[in-house]
Automatic annotation (TrEMBL):
Part of the tectonic-like complex (also named B9 complex). Component of the tectonic-like complex, a complex localized at the transition zone of primary cilia and acting as a barrier that prevents diffusion of transmembrane proteins between the cilia and plasma membranes. Required for ciliogenesis and sonic hedgehog/SHH signaling. Belongs to the B9D family. Its main location: cytoplasm. Residues 1-19 form the signal peptide. The lineage of its organism: Eukaryota, Metazoa, Chordata, Craniata, Vertebrata. This is B9 domain-containing protein 1.
Length: 184
């Protein structure tokens, strides 16, 4: 009896980082990257990207609008390690240095169709007053060297930081999702 050819499935993510609400900040830009398991491999599109700098809109919402496109295709033989998108938002501080204004992550939806995800953002904060003052004085606020750690369970503990979720800081992420199963 002949062995069956291994089959893969494709996950196509097509969407955009639409807008954000950061009431206290202006002139922000966004970076995205994907985190996925060992069985997953990107086959087309970009795994990471960086947007333009945007200012708050002049309407009542005062939203930061990026409309930043995302288009990537993954293949896998196993759903374990389903992809997550990690977003990092940066902007200038009072000294003009780019500092992190928020981190967030969300799993790519499991079902095909149109989805809209709202991602709560958080900022790591120093735990002691001395660390807070030193980081403010030096213009270097706490941030992750690799933002992918936001989507992983390991590597975040013992970081001597607190996570602070600013009021009403969120990102809107509408996307079209397509799943295809195909023999290899």
């Amino acid at each position: 009896m002949a062995a069956a050819a291994p089959s893969v499935f494709l996950l196509m993510v097509n969407g955009q980082v639409e807008s954000a609400q950061f009431p206290e900040y202006d002139d922000l830009y966004c970076k995205y990257c994907f985190v996925y398991g060992q069985d997953w491999a990107p086959t087309a599109g970009l795994e990471e990207g960086i947007s333009q700098i945007t200012s708050k809109s002049q309407d009542a919402r005062r939203a930061l609008v990026w409309n930043f496109p995302i288009d990537v295709t993954f293949k896998s033989t196993n759903p374990y390690g389903w992809p997550q998108i990690v977003l990092s938002v940066y902007g200038p501080d009072v000294f003009g240095n780019d500092v992190v204004r928020g981190y967030g992550a969300v799993h790519v939806p499991l079902s095909p169709g149109r989805h809209k995800k709202t991602i709560p953002m958080f900022v790591p904060e120093s735990t002691s007053k001395l660390q807070k003052f030193t980081s403010w004085f030096m213009g270097r606020r706490p941030e992750y060297t690799d933002p992918k750690v936001v989507a992983q369970g390991e590597g975040r503990e013992g970081g001597n930081m607190e996570a602070v979720i600013p009021k009403a800081a969120w990102i809107c992420l509408p996307a079209w999702l397509t799943l295809s199963f195909c023999p290899q």
